């Protein structure tokens, strides 16, 4: 079994209202000095078989076609090391 992590974040030029809400709440909770917050998504994908370049390419295709919206989001895929 191979496990991959797909991190999805809004592109820098895209507004992030959830991140702004968190940024506004942090000082009220006593956390000062935070300059910016961006909120994204994380997916952990387990696939049958061993990790390989082919499997990594398949997970990247999943990220591009379903797990992210490439128009407004960037994604990265990495092999998960337990």
Question: Which helices and strands appear, and what pairs or packs with what?
Answer:
Layout: E1 2-10, H1 17-28, E2 41-47, H2 53-67, E3 73-79
Antiparallel strand pairs: 1-2, 1-3
**Secondary structure tally: strands:** 3
* Helix-strand sequence: EHEHE
How would you sum up the global shape? elongated
What structural class do the secondary elements suggest?
alpha+beta
Catalytic activity: N(2)-formyl-N(1)-(5-phospho-beta-D-ribosyl)glycinamide + L-glutamine + ATP + H2O = 2-formamido-N(1)-(5-O-phospho-beta-D-ribosyl)acetamidine + L-glutamate + ADP + phosphate + H(+)
EC number: 6.3.5.3
Family: Belongs to the PurS family.
Subcellular location: Cytoplasm
Write up what this structure looks like.
- The chain has 82 residues and is of the alpha+beta class.
- It has a single domain, classed as 2-Layer Sandwich (Mth169, Chain: A).
- It is built from 2 helices and 3 strands; from the N terminus they run βαβαβ.
- It has helices at residues 17-28, 53-67; strands at 2-10, 41-47, 73-79.
- Strands 2-1-3 form a 3-stranded antiparallel β-sheet, with helices on one face.
- The longest helix is centred in the C-terminal third of the chain and has 15 residues, at 53-67.
- The radius of gyration is 16 Å and the shape is elongated.
- The model has no long low-confidence stretch (mean pLDDT 96).
- Its EC number is 6.3.5.3.
- InterPro entries: PurS (IPR003850), PurS-like_sf (IPR036604).
- Belongs to the PurS family.
- Its main location: cytoplasm.
């Amino acid at each position: 079994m191979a496990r991959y992590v797909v991190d999805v974040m809004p592109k820098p030029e895209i507004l992030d209202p959830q991140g702004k809400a968190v940024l506004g709440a942090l000082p009220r909770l006593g956390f000062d000095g935070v300059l910016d917050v961006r909120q994204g998504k994380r997916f952990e994908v387990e696939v049958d078989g061993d990790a390989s370049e082919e499997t990594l390419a398949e997970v990247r295709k999943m990220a591009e076609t379903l797990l992210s919206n490439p128009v407004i989001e960037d994604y990265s895929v990495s092999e998960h090391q337990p």
